[in-house]
């Protein structure tokens, strides 16, 4: 078994309305060192042993988990999840 | 003319759409479930608003893989009129039948109120009953209607005159005030405002009715043989 951690964020070129609202809120709390906030999604997939795991995960991300018109994704694959 | 109103789990404007066709336009409307697999008997396909699959993951992201969507794609390829309103528009974007994507509204609020739209292109099968630049009042009701596309796509949309409607006063941050676009062939329209909620003065506006009348008129012109 593998645990796959998927991170989906808006592309750099796409304005993030939620991120700007949170950044403004941090500034009003006087955390002026925060220059930018990007909000994204974190997903955990538990995946059975399979061939071409990396390729399959890419497919899953592009087909469903991320909308590549506006979002980027990254993932990490961890081996040996306890049953 | 026979209209299919697609019903996904979580659609909630399907009844409004049905009413607009049956009672206001006076044509035949049939509810078609998301898990059905045949749209051959329909002349036009309507994807209503709502929160299909709870808007989980992204609006429209899961609905686009519903069994009926393969048929919607087929109908689009066959040139049948396909109208997606609100969540229906989001589904068409996710399905790749229209370019671009939706983001959260710029002000992060769910907005539900009448807005003024400008008819940018009155030469589509959905807008021919309007005047060019005509201003019409149609309600919006969405939290994710902030239309986004990259610059290349935007240039193409403009060049091919595919922006059907714009907002007179942009409520959500959409690029170029875009409220509705058509595909390359002109037979798929996606729009965030709800024409089906503006089909009778009793509802506050009847300005949406001409959209459905346009579909009907164009269909008749291409299907009815003249004696």
How many domains comprise the coordinates of chain A?
A: 1
Percent helix among the residues of chain B?
10-25%
Measured distance between first and last alpha carbons of chain A: 8 Å
The coarse overall form of chain A would be elongated
What is the CATH superfamily of chain B? Class I glutamine amidotransferase (GATase) domain
Return the domain count of chain B: 1
Strand order of the largest sheet of chain B: 2-1-3-4-11-10-9-6-7
Number of extended strands of chain B: 11
What is the name of the CATH architecture of chain A?
2-Layer Sandwich
Query: Based on helices, strands and strand pairing, what is the structural class of chain B?
Result: alpha/beta
Mean pLDDT of chain B: 97
How many strand units of chain A?
3
Could you tell me the radius of gyration of chain A in angstroms?
16 Å
Largest sheet of chain B: 9 strands, mixed
* C-alpha termini separation of chain B: 19 Å
Portion of residues in beta strands of chain B equals 25-35%
Mean pLDDT of chain A comes to 94
Structural class estimated from helices and strands of chain A: alpha+beta
Based on the structure given, which CATH architecture of chain B is correct?
3-Layer(aba) Sandwich
Explain what the structure shows.
The complex is a heterodimer of chains A (83) and B (227). Chain A is of the alpha+beta class and 83 residues long. Chain A has helices spanning 17-28, 53-65, and strands spanning 2-10, 40-47, 71-79. Chain A has one domain (2-79): Phosphoribosylformylglycinamidine synthase subunit PurS (Mth169, Chain: A, 2-Layer Sandwich), CATH 3.30.1280.10. Chain A has two helices and three strands. Chain A has a three-stranded antiparallel sheet, covered by helices on one side. The longest helix of chain A has 13 residues, at 53-65. The model of chain A has no long low-confidence stretch (mean pLDDT 94). Chain B has 227 residues and is of the alpha/beta class. Chain B has one domain: Class I glutamine amidotransferase (GATase) domain (Rossmann fold). Helices cover 24% and strands 25% of the residues of chain B. Chain B has helices at 14-25, 68-77, 87-94, 151-159, 209-223; strands spanning 2-7, 28-33, 44-47, 82-85, 101-103, 111-119, 135-142, 146-148, 163-167, 178-182, 188-191. Chain B is globular and about 45 Å long. Chain B starts with a strand and ends with a helix. The mean pLDDT of chain B is 97. Classes of the chains: A alpha+beta (83), B alpha/beta (227). The interface between A and B is medium-sized, with 13 and 21 residues.
